[in-house]
């Protein structure tokens, strides 16, 4: 679940949006082909990022409820997404043991971090 002025509930490959104040249903967003793992609003509340076990991150225009970009780059399920405070960058973490920092405007990976194996762990 995620709150902004909206309540987001993910159900397998879709997620539903309700107005937090009125409780009214607003939309169902479909686009992922496997279970949705996490969502995050940008600081303006106009963009929503979602990630899924389908290995993709999607950016949604939250004023029209349409997918405007699909970000490719993870080799396994993407488990977490979060906008940085500026809203210009998005961080994703996946079960491929990587963290990626995406430039929102272009959809390009600007930084890529891989976990390292530590002896004895």
UniProtKB/TrEMBL annotation:
Record has Repeat as a keyword: yes
UniProt WD repeat ranges: 29-70, 71-112
Pfam families, A to Z: WD40
InterPro entries in alphabetical order: WD40/YVTN_repeat-like_dom_sf (IPR015943), WD40_repeat_CS (IPR019775), WD40_repeat_dom_sf (IPR036322), WD40_rpt (IPR001680)
Alphabetic keyword roster: Repeat, WD repeat
PANTHER family named in the record: F-BOX AND WD REPEAT DOMAIN CONTAINING 7 (PTHR19848:SF8), WD40 REPEAT PROTEIN (PTHR19848)
Protein name (record): Uncharacterized protein
Lineage per the UniProt record: Eukaryota, Metazoa, Spiralia, Lophotrochozoa, Platyhelminthes
């Amino acid at each position: 679940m995620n709150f902004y002025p909206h309540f987001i509930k993910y159900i397998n490959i879709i997620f539903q949006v309700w107005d937090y104040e009125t409780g009214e249903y607003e939309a169902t967003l479909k686009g992922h082909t496997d279970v949705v793992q996490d969502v995050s609003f940008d600081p303006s509340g106009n963009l929503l990022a979602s990630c899924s076990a389908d290995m993709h991150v999607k950016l949604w225009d939250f004023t029209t409820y349409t997918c405007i970009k699909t970000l490719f780059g993870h080799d396994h399920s993407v488990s977490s997404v979060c906008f940085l405070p500026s809203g210009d960058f998005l961080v994703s973490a996946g079960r491929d043991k990587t963290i990626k920092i995406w430039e929102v405007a272009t959809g390009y990976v600007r930084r890529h971090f891989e976990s390292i194996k530590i002896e004895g762990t």
